Amino acid sequence: MVMTETLDALAIKPSTFDGAVDDDESHESRAGVTDGLPRYLTSIVSSALDWIEDEPTRERIWETASERLSERSGRTAMPSVDRTFYVPISVDPSSAKIPIVLREPSLTADNLGHKTWGASYMLAKRLPLLSQYLPFLESRRPSDGAQHSAQKSRNAQDGVSISSPRVLELGAGTGLVGIAAAATFRANVDLTDLSDICENLAYNALRNQELTKAHGGSLTTYPLDWSDLPSSETVQGKQYDLIMAADPLYSPEHPIMLADTIALYLITKSSSRVVVELPLREAYQPEVNQFRDIMKRKRLTLIAEGGEVGYDDWGNGNQEVRCWWGVWAWEDSLPEGYTNRPTQHAATGE
Fold this sequence. Notes:
12 helices, seven-stranded mixed beta sheet, two-stranded antiparallel sheet
């Protein structure tokens, strides 16, 4: 039927934040769609469709028209969607990117973890460049025999793991950063979030398990509530070489809760690192500043930082998002006189 074919052709693919051009807008332009489309879709939904005798066909038309309308009503109105993000796992620009496919259920105000945020995509793409700040990866980089033996000796003296690094993602949401890290670093990655987010998180981890396995990584998920942390005795021996978080601050309580969680789960080795990417939203700038101050009080020193600009689709269409990222190490593990090495420009939001 012509109407069903037309409605199917009007489907909008979810944005993947790859550029300033709005994916939905360009799709509509190519299809020659006018501003009257929402009115047209609404008329179909409200019509009895009396001229169509087949009831299943009418039901499908109503359902499809409703979906097309919701796709044009902002991310919070959209139904469950699948997105594919293409992420580099090497600094070599000629290397192929891996496709990470994620399910995003319909959003509600209290389940924002069901959305993949622009900061997560920016951090996932930056991981190969951040490898230079992650000394626990040295043992897994190719080297000749003499260099390899010398590196193994240095690693043993420094407490650097020569097995697969253990990585923890906090507030993982849909899991993009952790899945990318498993493949990029050939690491065992634990993806964590609140229990009501973990069902979809586990689904995405399973969906991408073969992909990460092919690149030497593995994925596990479990719920972790920063407001109800286990004792230090409980996590002893289960700590991590690297802890990551993207866009994790949404309330005044989050900076201290996040920093407490990091300090509890980060293993106390000179090779341990923390990587966090934060959008510079004006409303949450106090939380960003507070988090940086608390990390310093916990004797975690910022060793590298930078700023970047990406896109998000929280509103209608892609919106520009400015982010700041940082890498921390235990203060006591750094050489005497060590100073922060900023890369790019340090974004302060001021």
